[in-house]
């Protein structure tokens, strides 16, 4: 770890050196040299990743990981290119700065694997790769030399540089994890998650990879087999944080699955807020009244927590007994009523939510001799093993458990929960709208049957069960029970054509817009051959954080060997077979289905990244990000 | 038509003056009557505000074109000519008493609107007048002592809905004189905490019955002040009545927000709404914070982060960038360090080891410790990352004990560690660092120094002899001023300090308006928030019960236990009727649910107005902030005379 930091440090220092130099030299930068030196600067410290754990990864995991890393590299390059282009556009002699030394302090989150062997840097493995494509990466031409006439321009250059430097500094510090996500069907996907990514981002990423129906119930959750715990992550949480708490020998897993209770409170608020009423009234509740309930409780100046009270069994500290107590939920925490005391005045605080998360306990009847199996647990996310600081509660039935866990989530997360839901809904609606549109417009048998299949399987299939196929093969195989229409026919109604040229600016402000949806993915597909595997792209951090320009310029041939090894999502032929017997509902047709060759003709240019700075990761309340934001604002005004 | 004599007393002539006799005919209109009286008095003044008041019928004769006949006024009628606007003493939620000109002739609803317009409080429909509790003789002396701020001379420019405001948010009409400016400040800035005795002395409800009594004192919105027996110079309380605060915007609502906060604060302090100990500590911390920030922030202007000033930020950065490498190093590392000898103690079962001294360094969010200063270059004995940990003070100024208790989460559970500091300064710096680290912030965070100050000022509060503590004494407040009587009794002021400090760490960085909003949010999230209680007798029941009225539902509550028996939501309500004769309200809900009750503690009209009022509040749309549908309000809340 120390070496790691040292390496990072010296890199950064070098970086700063360059920066200060270029600040001094106001006009002419040694363009080509700096961009080359940047390539050399790529060092990858795989701090905690060791050979053994890598060996244990399945072959395809490894490939995926590779692809990720390559994508990272190419993204950086692309960014550089984009920046250069931008500068050219601006007709400003803007000395470009070297790219950041991208220190990837990433390590594998152990999943089903124990990692005890000594750390081994992977630098040796990767450096050749990185080097190998340096030659193929043609350094962009130094920009045209025009003397800046105004001082404004100079100031602009300067601030651009500072901004860039800041961005790079920040980028260099970003922590990344390689996470193995277990799918519904038991297969798994490996992806790289950086610390700025929220669960929402990762979910979006997974939606693309799995072509599931994107409904709001999809969630990521963690399990802790040792404590028999499970918790759905909230969409606004950072994924890296909770995963960092896992121990090295942890058998914890990240699951990608549908959890109906995730947003149930927004779908049927009456069951939570009017839970005391009789079942029939609740069932017959009109939609209008449900909306009203959500509005009352989530849209007011403060979030109203369901008024829960009831007897729960509390597991006594480290004892085998469970004692019943009357518990109450308030916005400020869970309270209990001491024996013989009044319910209004003498509440004793049992727990507040600032430092704990709520988990479902699985099969506690067996494990802890709980009265029922409907248990929930409150603990600090850091705690991974049996401890006196874990609080165990047991409910009479599963419904009470859902009530309490949801109530606690509302109390803990408040408005974010509702925001998350709205984002999810927007996403789901967008997806289904797009699907409907594609079904109606291209009412070709092939399309609909593809959709059918995806829906029929109903789950996010990992690609693992289906044999990986070369992307190239897609075009070749196409077994035709219904024969695919000529590309030209499919093309016109394809939404891609209309949507894809959406400027970057809008997508940044509205992350829910389909930057990374099938539409734009199709755009990516439209890139000239050799086709860049879309997996590469989908591994990138999603829009809000992306510091990388999205649709990359023509990929480097050097990538091909790597990308081709990456297993593709289920190819069309197979889906056509399976889908034939099932009726037609609407998930997204896998982008891989889009006939690549045909689209090229009408392919819109990949959107150019014009203001890379706006993509600065949100939420950083620190000086740097403040500055970056302010900078973006200022630029916008000019 | 036969002429007859009409008796009219004229206010201007004094109460003892004999009534005027004017010779009139029944077809003379009211305007004519007034004209004749005015001519007869021979007083030269502006009479435009005067109108006739019919004493026996308690009725204003406001339509100048109506004839006496139409008003059915005969020779036996005693009328008086009096001004429609009279001074009224108004007690605001923050305890200030204002003397304002209020309209005595129009319905109270409109009078309140007028007053709120003057005071720049938006959404006056949420407020109303409450009669003061009848004061006993003993208290009368104190009442005299009340400072009354006279605003009767204040005139709002007519025409606009919202009075024009100056840049600092103050309405133009307050800028007339330094006095009025001071009054505005008084209204828009929350007052310092009251002495604890005030809280103890003030009336607080001891049960549902008491809480229900309050509502008996609301004035009827659809009748005028004079009709309800309010005289000039009487005192009334201006309070928020309906607990749904529409479109609260700190930008325009300086007075409204402050007064709302004050009302909420008193509701908490006087236990009008129940809250738990933890909640009380948070309220106390917020009060302390608000009090402190109000003093330092002269105007509750919208606070914008310093970062808005891009150029200065840029400049600052450029300086850093252009300086030599060492500075750059600074910037990268940025985090200053704390290092010192401290004593460590780990409570473990069956060990009686005491505090042991180590050399501690605090960097980023981690504490490391070494055997001695010289060994800093070696591996630390242990490194503890405080991110996400719990930090609690264990301090006794009297005993010179400055300990920090840390509960550091680890995979195996919580690691409990005590750090003992030598003195106040050391303690406050390490404590501040621990606090920040627990929230994932480093020492470089800009809030570090203010956090240190906060801790020091809190320690000062704990000082056993406040007198010895020289200059700062006036700033020190008694923590008993921040909590209700229940907790005053339960804890000594010194015991409260660490508890409040603990809650304070989460709010200490909030700017004033956010702190106010936060206070209101927590208040509104209390389970009992916004319930107005009435003792009622349900039809067919023998026992009195309590009806709780909130902004979205009616609650039937057991009077003795306080248990909720049933709730009905307004959106399932079909209609409600008031039988004024037998004083009974009947409400019909969807699904053929009918309830009927008579009101015990308050008149039927008040309950009816409350329910109707809340339904009216719900009709306000988000977009439309101006212009109220008065008619609808009266339709929903008025009695039979309004219909």
What does this structure look like?
The complex is a heterodimer of chains A (638) and B (643). Chain A is α+β, with helices and mostly antiparallel strands. Chain A has helices at 2-24, 31-41, 51-56, 59-89, 123-132, 151-173, 199-210, 240-244, 264-267, 270-273, 279-283, 287-298, 364-368, 398-413, 415-441, 445-457, 471-477, 487-490, 495-499, 504-509, 518-525, 534-538, 560-565, 572-579, 596-599, 623-637, and strands spanning 107-108, 176-182, 188-194, 218-224, 229-232, 253-258, 309-315, 322-330, 333-337, 348-351, 357-361, 375-379, 391-394. In chain A, strands 1, 2, 3, 4, 5, 6, 7, 8, 9, 10, 11, 12 and 13 form a 13-stranded mixed β-sheet that branches. In chain A, helix 16 (445-457) packs across helix 24. With 643 residues, chain B is of the alpha+beta class. Chain B contains 17 helices and 24 strands. In chain B, strand 23 and strand 24 (593-599) form a beta hairpin.
Draw up the topology in text.
The complex is a heterodimer of chains A (638) and B (643).
Chain A: H1 2-24, H2 31-41, H3 51-56, H4 59-89, E1 107-108, H5 123-132, H6 151-173, E2 176-182, E3 188-194, H7 199-210, E4 218-224, E5 229-232, H8 240-244, E6 253-258, H9 264-267, H10 270-273, H11 279-283, H12 287-298, E7 309-315, E8 322-330, E9 333-337, E10 348-351, E11 357-361, H13 364-368, E12 375-379, E13 391-394, H14 398-413, H15 415-441, H16 445-457, H17 471-477, H18 487-490, H19 495-499, H20 504-509, H21 518-525, H22 534-538, H23 560-565, H24 572-579, H25 596-599, H26 623-637
Parallel strand pairs in A: 1-2, 2-6
Antiparallel strand pairs in A: 2-3, 4-5, 4-6, 5-11, 7-8, 7-13, 8-9, 9-10, 11-12, 12-13
Helix pairs in contact in A: 1-6, 6-26, 16-24
Chain B: E1 3-10, E2 20-25, H1 30-41, E3 50-54, E4 59-61, E5 78-83, E6 85-91, E7 97-103, H2 108-119, E8 127-130, H3 137-145, E9 148-150, H4 178-188, H5 196-201, H6 208-214, E10 235-240, H7 254-269, H8 277-296, H9 310-322, H10 325-333, E11 338-345, E12 356-363, E13 366-370, E14 382-385, E15 390-396, E16 401-410, E17 413-421, H11 424-438, H12 448-462, H13 485-490, H14 493-504, H15 512-525, E18 532-538, E19 545-549, E20 553-557, E21 564-569, E22 573-579, E23 584-589, E24 593-599, H16 604-619, H17 630-637
């Amino acid at each position: 770890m120390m070496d790691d930091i040292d390496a990072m440090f010296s890199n950064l220092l070098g970086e700063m050196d360059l920066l200060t130099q270029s600040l001094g030299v106001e006009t002419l930068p040694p363009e080509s040299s700096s961009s080359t030196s940047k390539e050399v600067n790529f060092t990858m410290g795989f701090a905690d990743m060791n050979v053994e754990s890598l060996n244990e990864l399945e072959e395809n995991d490894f490939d995926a990981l590779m692809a990720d890393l390559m994508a990272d590299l190419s993204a950086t390059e692309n960014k550089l290119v984009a920046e250069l282009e931008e500068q050219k556009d601006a007709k400003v002699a803007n000395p470009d700065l070297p790219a950041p030394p991208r220190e990837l302090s990433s390590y594998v989150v152990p999943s089903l694997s124990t990692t005890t062997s000594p750390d081994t840097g992977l630098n040796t493995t990767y450096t050749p790769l990185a080097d190998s494509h340096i030659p193929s990466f043609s350094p962009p031409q130094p920009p045209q030399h025009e003397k800046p006439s105004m001082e404004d321009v100079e100031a602009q250059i300067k601030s651009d540089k500072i901004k860039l430097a800041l961005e790079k500094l920040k980028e260099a510090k970003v922590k990344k994890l390689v996470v193995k996500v277990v799918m519904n069907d038991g297969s798994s996907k490996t992806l790289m998650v950086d610390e700025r990514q929220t669960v929402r981002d990762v979910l979006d990423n997974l939606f693309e990879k799995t072509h599931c129906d994107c409904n709001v119930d999809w969630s990521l959750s963690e399990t802790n087999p040792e404590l028999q715990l499970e918790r759905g992550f909230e969409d606004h949480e950072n994924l890296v944080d909770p995963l960092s708490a896992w121990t090295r020998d942890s058998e914890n897993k990240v699951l990608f699955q549908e959890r109906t209770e995730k947003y149930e409170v927004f779908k049927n608020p009456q069951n939570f807020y009017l839970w005391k009423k009789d079942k029939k009234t609740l069932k017959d509740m009109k939609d209008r009244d449900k909306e009203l309930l959500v509005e009352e409780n989530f849209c007011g100046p403060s979030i109203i927590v369901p008024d829960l009270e009831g007897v729960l069994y509390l597991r006594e500290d480290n004892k085998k007994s469970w004692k019943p107590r009357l518990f109450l939920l308030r916005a400020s925490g869970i309270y209990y009523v001491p024996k013989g005391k009044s319910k209004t005045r003498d509440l004793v605080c049992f727990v507040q939510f600032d430092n704990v998360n709520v988990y479902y306990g699985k099969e506690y009847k067996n494990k802890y001799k709980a009265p029922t199996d409907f248990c929930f647990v409150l603990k600090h996310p850091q705690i991974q093993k049996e401890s006196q600081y874990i609080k165990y509660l047991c409910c009479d039935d599963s419904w009470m458990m859902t009530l309490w866990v949801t109530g606690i989530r509302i109390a803990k997360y408040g408005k974010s929960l509702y925001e998350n839901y709205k984002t999810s809904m927007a996403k789901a609606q967008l997806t289904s709208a797009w699907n409907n549109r594609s079904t109606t417009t291209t009412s070709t048998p092939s399309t609909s049957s593809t959709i059918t299949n995806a829906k029929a399987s109903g789950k996010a299939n990992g690609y693992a069960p289906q044999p990986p196929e070369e992307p190239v093969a897609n075009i070749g195989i196409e077994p035709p029970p219904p024969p695919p229409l000529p590309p030209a026919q499919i093309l016109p109604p394809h939404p891609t054509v209309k949507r894809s040229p959406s400027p970057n600016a809008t997508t940044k402000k509205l992350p829910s817009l389909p930057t990374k949806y099938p539409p734009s993915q199709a755009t990516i597909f439209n890139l000239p051959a050799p086709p860049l595997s879309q997996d590469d792209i989908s591994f990138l951090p999603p829009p809000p954080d992306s510091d990388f320009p999205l649709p990359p310029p023509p990929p480097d041939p050097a990538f091909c060997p790597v990308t081709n090894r990456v297993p593709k999502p289920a190819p069309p032929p197979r889906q056509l077979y399976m889908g034939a017997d099932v009726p037609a509902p609407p998930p997204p047709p896998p982008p891989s289905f889009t006939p690549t060759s045909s689209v090229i003709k009408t392919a819109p240019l990949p959107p150019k990244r014009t203001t890379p700075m706006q993509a600065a990761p949100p939420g950083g309340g620190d000086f740097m990000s403040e500055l970056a934001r302010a900078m973006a604002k200022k630029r916008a005004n000019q | 038509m036969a002429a007859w004599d009409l008796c009219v007393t004229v206010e201007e002539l004094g109460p003892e003056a004999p009534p005027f006799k004017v010779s009139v005919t029944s077809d003379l209109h009211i305007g004519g009557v007034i004209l004749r009286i005015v001519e007869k008095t021979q007083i030269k003044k502006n009479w435009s505000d005067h109108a006739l008041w019919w004493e026996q019928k308690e009725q204003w004769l406001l339509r100048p074109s109506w004839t006496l006949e139409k008003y059915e006024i005969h020779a036996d009628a005693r009328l008086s000519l009096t001004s429609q606007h009279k001074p009224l003493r108004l007690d605001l939620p923050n305890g200030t008493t204002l003397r304002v000109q209020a309209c005595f002739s129009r319905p109270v609803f409109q009078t309140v609107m007028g007053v709120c317009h003057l005071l720049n409080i938006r959404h006056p429909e949420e407020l109303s007048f409450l009669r003061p509790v009848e004061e006993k003789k003993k208290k009368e002396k104190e009442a005299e002592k009340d400072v009354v701020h006279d605003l009767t001379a204040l005139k709002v420019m007519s025409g606009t809905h919202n009075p024009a405001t100056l840049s600092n948010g103050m309405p133009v009409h307050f800028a007339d004189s330094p006095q009025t400016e001071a009054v505005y400040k008084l209204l828009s800035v929350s007052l310092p905490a009251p002495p604890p005795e005030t809280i103890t002395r003030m009336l607080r409800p001891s049960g549902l019955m008491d809480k229900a009594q309050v509502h008996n004192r609301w004035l009827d919105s659809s009748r005028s002040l004079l009709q309800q027996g309010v005289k000039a110079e009487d005192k009334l309380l201006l309070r928020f009545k309906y607990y749904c605060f529409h479109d609260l915007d700190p930008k325009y609502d300086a007075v409204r927000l402050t007064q709302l906060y004050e009302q909420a604060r008193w509701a908490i302090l006087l236990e009008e709404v129940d809250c738990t100990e933890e909640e009380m500590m948070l309220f106390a911390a917020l009060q302390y914070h608000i009090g402190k920030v109000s003093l330092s922030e002269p105007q509750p202007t919208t606070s914008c982060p310093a970062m808005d000033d891009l150029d200065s930020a840029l400049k600052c950065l450029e300086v850093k960038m252009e300086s030599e490498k060492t500075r750059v190093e600074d910037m990268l590392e940025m985090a200053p360090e704390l290092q010192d000898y401290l004593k460590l103690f780990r409570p473990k079962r069956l060990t009686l080891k005491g505090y042991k001294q180590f050399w501690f360094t605090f960097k980023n969010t981690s504490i490391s410790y070494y055997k001695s200063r010289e060994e800093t270059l070696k591996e630390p004995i242990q490194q503890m990352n405080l991110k996400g940990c719990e930090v609690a003070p264990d301090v006794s100024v009297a005993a010179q004990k400055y300990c920090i208790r840390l509960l550091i989460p680890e995979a195996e559970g919580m690691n409990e560690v005590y750090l003992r500091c030598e003195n106040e300064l050391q303690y406050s710096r390490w404590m501040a660092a621990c606090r920040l680290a627990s929230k994932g912030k480093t020492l470089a965070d800009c809030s570090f120094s203010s956090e240190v100050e906060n801790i020091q000022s809190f320690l000062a509060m704990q000082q056993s002899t406040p007198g010895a503590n020289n200059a700062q004494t006036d700033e020190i407040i008694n923590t008993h001023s921040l909590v209700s009587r229940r907790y005053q009794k339960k804890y000594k002021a010194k015991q409260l300090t660490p508890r409040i400090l603990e809650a304070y760490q989460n709010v200490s960085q909030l700017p004033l308006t956010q702190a106010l909003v936060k206070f209101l949010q927590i208040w509104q999230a209390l389970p009992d928030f916004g319930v107005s209680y009435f003792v009622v007798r349900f039809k067919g029941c023998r026992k009195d019960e309590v009806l709780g009225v909130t902004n979205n539902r009616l609650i039937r509550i057991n009077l003795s236990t306080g248990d909720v028996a049933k709730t009905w939501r307004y959106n399932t309500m079909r209609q409600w009727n008031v039988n004024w004769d037998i004083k009974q309200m009947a409400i019909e809900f969807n699904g053929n649910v009918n309830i009927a009750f008579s009101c015990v503690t308050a008149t039927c009209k008040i309950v009816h107005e409350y329910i109707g009022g809340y339904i009216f509040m719900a009709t306000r749309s988000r977009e439309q902030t101006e212009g109220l549908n008065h008619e609808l309000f009266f339709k929903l809340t008025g009695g039979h005379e309004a219909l």
